[in-house]
Fold:
Amino acid sequence: MNATLEPPVQAAPNIRRELDADHVCVLTFDRPGSSANLFDAQTLSELDRHLAWIAASGAAGVVLQSAKPSIFIAGADLRALMDAAKRNALPPIIELGQSVFTRLASLPMPTVAAIHGACAGGGLEVALACDYRIATPDAATKIGLPETQLGILPGWGGSARLPRLIGLPAALNVILGGKLHAARQAFKIGIVDALAPRERLLELARKKIRSGKPHRASHFLTNNRLAAAAIAAGVRRVVLKKTRGHYPAQIAALETIANGVSLPLEKALALEREAVVRLASTETCRNLVNLFFQRERARKGPPGEAVQVAVIGAGVMGSAIAQWVSSRGSPVLLRDIDAERVGKGMANAARLYDAGVRRHTFTALEARDGLDRISPIVDEAPLKRARLVIEAAVEKMAVKKQVFARLEELCDRDAILATNTSALSVSALASGLAAPGRVAGLHFFNPVHRMQLVEVIVGVQTEPEVVQHLAAFARRIGKLPVVVKDSPGFLVNRILIPYLMEAGTLFEEGASVTEIDNAMLDFGMPMGPLRLLDEVGLDIATDVAETLGSPSRALAAMRDAGLLGRKSGRGFYLYVQPREKPNADLAPFRRGRENPSRDALRERMVLPMVNEAARCLEEKVVATADDVDFGMVMGTGFAPFRGGPLRYADYAGIASLVSRMKEPCELLKTMAAEGRKFYEDPD
Ligand code: NAI
Structure:
């Protein structure tokens, strides 16, 4: 074994072993000083030693459980894994995991994974090496193999064992989907054998042990070589269409699993090892894992308390913010100018709760309690108890100034007053108030329940403590905050708008709507820019572009003609049943007949985005390149596998990009001249 895998001497144990009166051996995972259990080399070696002891002990059975309140085993220690990949030292860790789990699978006595809490990646792989998996039906119990989302595949036996347990098609769904499933769903799929409340989980485990080793279906209809090849060919087409070839882990997982399913287990495990080692060294994997760490970082920090919140303006955004905040336990006052509008806002909040119930995000009871936490108010009731006010009234400075002046009179002096403005200056809004230091921006994205990012906007007078409170509040309600300096368009819209306007200009010059959108889908964006404009609304997009000083003529003309996008049924696309189609009547808005290649289109749209992203860093709109990239991936869905516009710039070569830009910013020019990158090399 590689020397680096030797566990540190005298390290505190991660696993406790107890042999009960019935000779059942219970292994309890309890990583010291952490709320999560993880698999690293030390934990794997510990497990190995326990298994060696158990094999010789003649125990009647084995149960694996966790002492943590909401985590069974969260997976592999990703940092250690990526470090090892960097040093070309991954194979020994993969081999160690596989051999320990194979040892577990080969024990002569029945083995049970008793799962409560997150059971992901390596956590599920160890469970798959057990004879039985039983789980609590609690919301904390989430089960799955998310590796392909990180650009790798399950490499500790998951890719080989899952299709043997539930059949190839179902296993491909689970592994290529990369989702974590609720326990009931995992039970339905066949990953979990039985469910029991937490206090009865051990009792059920003992019952399973008494019933002996299981006899399982062989899935010979799908898991033979011919059927597997046919299934793989079909799935391959779907995957390629969806990923446009950008996510190599999906195809690698598909091939590894389909090829391995008809081989002896050891051979399937060898395929898995080889694939995971290869994938872990790709740029895509590094970018996706980095995104995972960025998310973790944004989540870290003290979460705020469940304070009383007031939302001013019950329109699209205000009602959605009220719904989201109330769903996280805070009481919310929702105010608008008359009863009708407040009523509409409440109805929208109720609709969002209903949709959440249909998606199983809430139970019907949770939804009712959440809605009960929102109090509609019409009159200018005093807001003395509100610790935080979120203003989401119309996007007009004069209106917002009036609202804030009244808020100062109605609220407690310590209350934080935040605006959800898309593009107005927070500093200008705060100027003239008695306590401008209490004012900041809290910019949610639409749709609120889907977009995790929240920009915390720091005005020139905003107090640092207010910024901290707002970031903590964002974390408390399950959002990911990024702190942004008050400047036109803040971070995300500022970078997005030049890109959208360039798409508008290309359209005006004659490029086809579908070609423009396809060029950016090929690049890896979740939606083409013209489709996105239709979704946002051409009126709103041109408004913001006008504030930023870069409106597109064609877009303004379309807006004036009432082509607003989805909300008016017509824009670049016609919104007809069963699905939208390109609008064929757009000739009046075009001035040219150029139709550049997709490569040329992509180049025209990507370069302004990269340039603006670099400018944000140059002007210190955010603190780091990481913040820019994280904001763009989370706020706009910027091709996650590319890691963000600045990581993309590093990858594409800054000097080469600069040589193709019309007006590169100073920072990019200097970096190109000095041969610098936004990120250090991985090694
Ligand atoms: P909306 O027009 O749907 O809602 C605005 C609501 O504010 C209306 O119900 C209106 O009656 C109410 N209102 C106006 N004056 C008021 C006052 N003095 N007191 C209380 N309520 C008042 O607008 P939407 O889209 O919800 O936007 C609200 C804010 O959020 C704007 O500042 C907008 O820029 C921002 N925003 C909008 C996004 C979007 O995609 N719609 C995304 C992010 C921010």
Remarks:
- The CA atoms of residues 629 and 644 lie 4 Å apart.
